[in-house]
Design goal:
The complex is a heterodimer of chains A (about 375) and B (about 290). With about 375 residues, chain A is α+β, with helices and mostly antiparallel strands. Helices cover about 25% and strands about 35% of the residues of chain A. At the A-B interface, strand 6 and helix 2 of A face helix 8 and helix 9 of B. The structure holds adenosine-5'-diphosphate and magnesium ion.
């Protein structure tokens, strides 16, 4: 076949709990060897979706294919997928070697062969010689790698990971992000990774699906999800964004003119917003899309220029920001370049904000 | 750093336990041991020696009953474990909330009735003119009345019934603490029910299994009513023998020796069981 079946394919997958729909007509496919993330807030149905793929829950409707074969009715121990659980679920009564060798023992692999493959996989995840240790003798990051090794030793078609970094402290989490990505590249196995942390998803993924209330709102590469979100939810959930509630005044080709709730005029470029005059809308504006100047000089001819005062300065190294209060409306967050006179900004300083109409996104307000 | 004040508090807290140990356990046993090594050589005349213990080994009835009691208690413990484990697993893992509490309480209901009454209940069921016998006749499965009582099987039924709660409670406690995701991980990695039971569930439940077994074994070994009431004339139990020495024969010396042998037996079997299951007593009692 010229175009082999993708490793994982979900078709209209739905899961109902009594009268509650946890997963709602989800369709996606994951090509071989890619890192696919499902990003969504807590309770949106990520775990339920993953458990259906692993086989612990059966879909109410829809189909699930792995390498082209339907998995409906196949029990978890017969599926070519492995799962890294939220709290890892390493067996505390076994040592590391027995943990990693568990799956091979179930397959009836010979003892010597198991020992060899366990040592090999532990070396590959960077933990040579720990086979004899107890689970509680390892650190959080090491346990993480053991949990991955325990799955990878079985050479699954798809590895499922349920927020595996959630229990780690910040520093280690940053480190494990990079490490997970490089492990995935080294094994060249398809990873399906679920998280509520957008930075994990953005850093590691080839493709991200943004999930909300059981539905996929957008599927795409990280850059696309970040820079051109399809829906208001995606714009608000992925990355930082200022949300401005507004009403559409007029449409002039691709340029929309809106009036914010506080009465300020906004100009936004949006080719196909589907909005009509008078409709209520939400404008999303990333902090780094807003330009900050201390004087009005050189701002002639620019659009969306507003005068305001600094309400607070949040210093965070390269990610520093200020909140700016305009004459009216809610304060907005603006990225603070660490250069020149910007370092001198203090609460109360007068500043001018401006942004290009093409850098904001506009969506119909919910319920509008 | 321990101050004198907190040290005093510690000893004050310890005092009742020490008192209980010394007055109610160590002293009576010392007395018992002293009596057991007194040989009667004439009316009100005694000499120190191990004659009572020698009598035990020379009289086959004694040591046969001793061995019989030990073997049947071990068997009763094993049966209790076999019946108790699925019950405990069901309560701990397959039910939640109200159902769980209700089932747990139902296990306890028989204990609201005195042991004597409970045992008579079994007699009503099992005797020749009892419920089971009549039922079988009514169904036409047997032609005449059947006697289920007065044999070793009846003793076994009584022992398992009496002690099953003491197996189920520690098992439910340990199985409750077994994270469901461990079982799921077992299936995910290709395990089947049997291998997961063997490699994940049982190793985790081991402290509960061992502590349940110790308690049930001790209860069976020291049981007096059940074997006497449900067992036949030949179904001797070692506690019955001790009773006879003390009460019927007024032979306190031999009775004490037999009591000490029973203590040695239970300690020995528990020690062996812990060694075989590679558990420590502290571990078992601490976790279950
Ligand atoms: N077994 C279940 N029975 C009923 N509702 C459930 C069950 N499992 C999950 N849910 C519900 O489904 C929703 C999604 O849960 P989950 O998939 O765990 O979310 P996430 O992993 O995204 O935080 C939640 O509202 C949860 O209450
Ligand atoms: Mg979850």
């Amino acid at each position: 076949m010229a175009n082999p079946a993708p490793d994982l394919q979900c078709l209209d997958l739905t899961k109902d709990f009594d009268d509650f729909r946890a997963v709602d007509h989800v369709s996606f496919e994951v090509p071989q060897g890619s890192f696919f993330s499902i990003l969504g807030p807590s309770g949106c149905g990520k775990t339920t979706l993953l458990r259906m793929i692993a086989g612990f829950q059966s879909p109410s409707s829809g189909d699930l294919l792995i390498k082209g074969a339907s998995m409906i009715g196949v029990p978890p121990n017969k599926r070519p997928v492995s799962m890294v659980f939220q709290h890892l679920a390493l067996f505390p009564t076994m040592n590391i070697g027995d943990n990693v060798g568990f799956g091979l023992r179930q397959r009836g692999v010979a003892r010597a062969e198991i020992a060899r493959r366990v040592d090999e996989i532990l070396a590959r995840v960077g933990l040579p010689g720990v086979a004899g240790r107890r689970v509680d003798q390892l650190s959080g990051g090491q346990k993480q790698r053991v949990a991955i090794a325990r799955c990878m030793v079985l050479e699954p078609d798809v590895l499922l990971l349920d927020e595996p970094l959630g229990a780690l402290d910040l520093k280690l989490r940053e480190h494990m992000k990079v490490e997970l990505k490089s492990l995935q590249a080294a094994f060249n196995t398809t990873f399906v990774y679920i998280t509520h942390d957008q930075s994990e998803a953005l850093v590691m993924s080839d493709n991200i699906a943004v999930m909300n209330r059981g539905r996929f709102e957008q599927i795409g590469p990280p850059q696309e999800v970040y820079h051109s979100p399809d829906t208001a939810f995606v714009a608000g959930f992925v990355g930082e964004a200022n949300r401005i509630d507004a009403r559409l005044v007029s449409v002039n080709g691709p340029v929309l003119t809106l009036e914010s709730e506080s009465g300020a005029a906004l100009s936004v470029e949006a080719a196909q917003s589907g909005l009509s005059a008078g409709q209520r809308a939400q404008v999303f504006l990333r902090p780094e899309a807003i330009e900050l100047t201390t004087s009005a000089e050189g701002l002639e001819g620019r659009e969306n220029v507003t005068k305001g005062t600094v309400a607070s300065v949040l210093f965070n190294g390269a990610n520093s920001s200020v909140t700016v209060q305009h004459a009216s409306g809610t304060p907005i967050s603006v990225a603070l370049p660490q250069t020149g006179d910007m370092a001198k900004l203090r609460p109360g300083s007068t500043v001018y904000t401006s942004w290009h109409p093409g850098r904001a996104r506009v969506y119909p307000a919910p319920g509008a | 750093m321990t101050t004198d004040g907190s040290k005093l508090g510690f000893y004050l807290l310890l005092a009742p336990i020490l008192l209980w140990l010394v007055v109610l356990i160590i002293l009576p046993h010392l007395g018992l041991f002293w009596v057991s090594i007194s040989e009667k050589i004439g009316p009100r005349e005694f000499q120190t020696g191990f004659g009572n213990y020698v009598t035990f080994f020379e009289e086959p009835l004694y040591w046969r009953t001793f061995a019989r009691t030990a073997i049947m208690s071990i068997l009763a413990t094993a049966l209790t474990l076999i019946f108790g484990f699925p019950i405990a697993y069901y309560i701990a893992k397959l039910t939640r909330g109200r159902t769980k509490t209700t089932l747990f309480l139902m296990c306890m209901i028989p204990f609201w009735v005195s042991e004597l009454v409970r045992t008579f209940g079994w007699m009503i069921l099992l005797r020749e003119t009892g419920v089971f016998s009549n039922l079988l006749q009514y169904l036409g499965l047997v032609s005449g009345p059947v006697e289920f009582l007065y044999n070793d099987a009846a003793i076994m039924v009584g022992l398992v019934y009496t002690s099953i709660l003491f197996m189920v409670v520690p098992l439910v406690t340990t199985l409750d603490s077994l994270d469901d995701s461990l079982i799921e991980a077992g299936y995910d990695l290709g395990g089947n029910s049997l291998s997961i039971l063997r490699e994940i569930v049982i190793p985790h439940a081991m402290p509960g299994i061992v502590s349940g077994c110790i308690v049930v074994f001790m209860l069976s070994l020291g049981n007096y009513l059940t074997p006497i009431l449900l067992g036949g004339k030949d179904s001797l139990w070692f506690t019955g023998m001790i009773y006879t020495q003390f009460i019927t024969r007024f032979n306190w010396e031999l009775g004490s020796a037999l009591g000490f042998l029973l203590l040695a037996l239970s300690s020995g079997v528990v020690f062996l069981g812990l060694k075989l299951s590679r558990q420590s007593l502290a571990d078992t009692m601490g976790r279950a």
